[in-house]
Design a protein that fits this description.
Elements lengths: L1 H42 L7 H38 L8 H32 L3
Amino acid sequence: MNEEYRNNLIAAEQKSQDDYDKTIVSLSGGALGISIVFIKDIIGTSEPVMLWVVITAWALWASSLASVVTSYFLSRMALRVAILQNDRNDFSAGVGGWPAKATHFFNAISGLLFLSGIVFLIIFSAKNIGN
């Protein structure tokens, strides 16, 4: 029973991570599109105020997407390392080694970058609505 429960937890964790990555990719891509529509339809022909703020938001979302892609790559590497560790029965470097640790970092940073982009878009929108 304990082993079955553990396997279910591992499967749930993997699904949760997949869902998280897909959500960040969808939201970051969608936010880029929405911000472009905002500039086109709301600001229109008037001169945007603090244009650097929306450019920063775009850079943050692009970085968020890059972080997710990097996380996918590192996750694959971590699985390879874990397979080799299992074959050698040596987990002294931690399961998955440094790629597993880097995967956790890039997963966290992708969410932070996305949220930061939202903050910058809100600032840009607040400064430009009604101008």
